[in-house]
Amino acid sequence: MKFTELGLNEHILRAIKDQGYDTPTPVQQKAIPVVLGGKDVLAGAQTGTGKTAGFTLPMLNLLASSPKPKGKRPVRGLILTPTRELASQVAQSVKDYGKYLPFKSTVIFGGVSINPQIHTLKNGVDIIIATPGRLLDLMNQKAVDLREVEFFVLDEADRMLDMGFIHDIKKILKVLPKKRQNLLFSATFSKEIKTLASGFLHNPALVEVARTNATSAQVEQIVYPVDKARKREMLTQLITENSWQQVLVFTRTKHGANRLCEQLGKDGITSAAIHGNKSQNARTKALSGFKEGKVRVLVATDIAARGIDIDQLSHVVNYELPNISEDYVHRIGRTGRAGNSGQAVSLVCVDEHEYLRNIESLTKNRIPKVQLKGFTPDPSIKAEPIQNGGGRRRGGGGGSRGGNGGSNRNNSRGGRSNAQRKQGQNSNGNSTRKPRSRASHRD
Length: 443
Prior knowledge:
It contains 15 helices and 17 strands.
């Protein structure tokens, strides 16, 4: 099937051709015709399969074919995303695919001045791509009017819930018009997602192109057993001896990301860290440097798991396994995208064996273990509880969600986020009571 067979208008087809695309991915093939038919959609597909185009293309097509409202340009399309990086990525897709259409779009998130955003909204926009916290700030200041939204998209809904955005989402839904088309896209489905969907989707069509929590067949997965104290040494050796030029490395904590960057620098490997304590400018600079090849290694917390889209990224390394098994799926989904191959490497110490078992159980896949010469783990070392930020202890499979730093409310205000209040954490993300197994907190 070709994009020309999906019922999209000539302006959008021209923009798609400019991007070098010809054939839609499976999720695009299934979702686009259903959305164009006017139905609400509950869609799930593993990361890296083209979900963004699956909703931006038909949204633009529908808005272009509907009567243009009279008077001031109202907000007609609203897309909510959990993180700043993902919001920017989606905004770029809207811009690219809508380049030959007369629409104005803008991206809204925290960590930057709100005044330019207010100014842009006053001049009128057709489509808003936003994170929930900053959008609510603008709503509270009466700087944005959502009463004429025709098209609402909730992107990465599972991540939204994990980051504690459920109450923000409900507040936003209350101000939207009852008559609108709704799409919910999620990499994973859970009971919570289905409950959320039932609250605002009307007789939705279900679009699924892969088993929930499946990993891409394009990604080769490898586990290297190693003592915790020798992980950095192993990582340096893998990068240098294999001549890896672009590597995305995941740590569990912000402090761990900073420390690893410093160590890699001493080893002569250019690196940059991206996490919630970094300013938006610093995060943008680090990501740009990585994409342009100026930075060889980007060290990230899970803030980046769904906000980085790099063509032909060859290697993802789990320097530390994630506390929540689903995050493993999203991390390794940064490679092996759009039909390209990739490799996901996990450096696993004895403390993380339970995390690994839970990941293999979730993905229903036994990951091959390879013993790197010279790095055989010391059998006398016993497993110890893992400290996940703020000195909290976790057993395998439970743990803290790597959030978006300020993105739990995605603005610069202090205080606790909804997720922190729910989980009993203070404004620094430290636990004030015994945590639950699916805690959400700042990364």
